[in-house]
Design a protein that fits this description.
Blueprint lengths: L2 E8 L6 H15 L4 E8 L9 H6 L1
Parallel strand pairs: 1-2
């Protein structure tokens, strides 16, 4: 079975990572229909190396 991890990041609380995740899920559904999917998302500035909690879980 294929395992896919999706990661989305937004910079401010005015942005929504859900749109990014939905688009990624659509792609994965078309390309890997039987894959199990794990989702990760952060809301951090692009220059913040310490706040990427979900990114570190992904890695």
């Amino acid at each position: 079975m294929t395992h896919v991890a999706l990661y989305a990041r937004v910079s401010t609380d005015r942005q929504d990572h859900e749109r990014q995740i939905r688009e990624l899920e659509e792609f994965v559904g078309e390309e890997y229909p039987d894959a199990s999917v794990e989702r990760f998302a952060d809301m951090i500035s692009g220059t913040d190396d310490e706040g990427c909690v979900e990114y570190h879980h992904l890695r």
